[in-house]
Design brief:
about 90 residues; mainly alpha; 2 helices; about 0% strand
Length: about 90
Amino acid sequence: MATVKATDLAHTEAQKMLGIITQQFPALINQLYSTGQTMSDPNQWDGPLATKFRGEVWPAAKSDLEKMRTSLEHLQNSVQRILTSISHAGGA
């Protein structure tokens, strides 16, 4: 059986990471999404660069934001497992 080491600092940092993943990143992604939606509205911004933004930049950015959300969900699950493992090992 392998030895597991889990310090109180490891537990604290894992909790901090989970907070960033579940609270800060989603809020930032939502802000970016909302801002991008506004910027892609021709009633708010129009012209050659706006058309390029709507047709090329924003669709790619929206896709990237969705990928980030998915990646964060996977990371959240991993960090949850880490916290469980730390708790079972006796840390914090």
